[in-house]
Amino acid sequence: MRIVLDAMGGDYAPAAVVEGGVRAAREYGVEVILVGRREAVEPELARHDTAGLQVPIVHASEVIEMDEHPALVAKSKRDSSMAVGMQMVKRGEADAFVTMGNSGGALAVALLHLGRLRGIKRPALSSVFPTVKGPAFLIDLGANADCKPEYLLQFAIMGSVYAERVLGILHPRVGIVSNGEEEGKGNFLVRDTTPLLKACGLNFVGNVEGKDVPAGLADVIVTDGFTGNVIVKTSEGVAAMILEVLEREIKARPLAMAGALLAKPAFRAAKRTLDYTEYGGAALLGVNGIVIVGHGRSNAKAVASAIRVAKVAVEGKVLDAIRAGIEATGSAEDEEERN
Length: 339
What we know:
By secondary structure, the protein is an alpha/beta fold.
C-alpha cells in the first residue's frame, strides 16, 4: 500500500512529520511517500534508519501555510505539497493522502483535484471521539458551518460506513446533536433532519445532548460543522484542564502523591484515552479519495497514527461502501442540482 504524506504540513514539519512517516512505514508495512520541498525533507529523512523501508521523496516547490486562505491558495499554489500529493492519489499512484496541515486548505485542494464522490452534496470532516464506552465517530467537525437536512443525512450515512469499516462497530447507533433528548427538540435543522434519518434504514437512536456524547449513547454523532467544531474544541480544552488540575492538586498534597504512585498505571491509561495522538486524524469523507487530516500540532506518534487510519480506511474499502450507501438511500443529488 502506498500512502502519500504531506511532509510540509503541521506546526512541527518537516521533522516530526518525517519521523512519523518512517515510524509508520516500519510498523505498518506501507510505502510512505514524502511530498514536499526536497531540500527540507532530505536532511530530516537522513536522520533516520530507513534500511528495508520504502520512503521515497517527491518534490513539491510550494507549501500551503496554516494561516493562508484555503480557497485562494488551493488555486494559486498548484505545486503545493497538498496539490502534488492529491494528484498522485487521483492518478492512482497512491492509495491515500495524509496531512497535518491547514484543514481548510486540505478540503479546498481535495475538492479541486479529487472532486466529490458522485451523489455527495457536501464533504465533511469527521473524527473519532473518546467516550466511556469506547470510541465514537463525530461528523462534521467544521467543513460545513451551515447545513441543510439532506447534508446531515449524507453525513450520517458516511459516518455509519466509516464506523463499521474502520472502527469495527457493527450496526452503529446514529444520533443527532440537539438541545434535548425528546423528539421535537432542537432547531429547524435538527427537526427537519430527524424524519430523514428515521426513514433511511440506519440504526437511528434519536437526539443526543452534549452530555450524551462522552457517555457513549451513540456510535455516530451527526451535526453541522459549526456545532461539531465547538464540541471538539471544548472537549479538548476540558480534557486538558482536568489532567492539569489533577496533576497540580496531587503535587500539592504529599499523601496524595503516595497514592498517585499506586494509581500511575490508571492515570496513564486515562491519558491515552483522552490523547488525540492515539486517534490519528480527521477523515475528510465525501471526496473521491481517502484523505486524512491530522491536528496541526501533531507529533511523530500522531502522524504515524494518521497513516494507520488511512491504511485501515483503504483496506475497509470505505469509498466503495459510501457510494453504495448513498445509492441505497436514494439521497444522491439529482443531475439538475449537479449541473
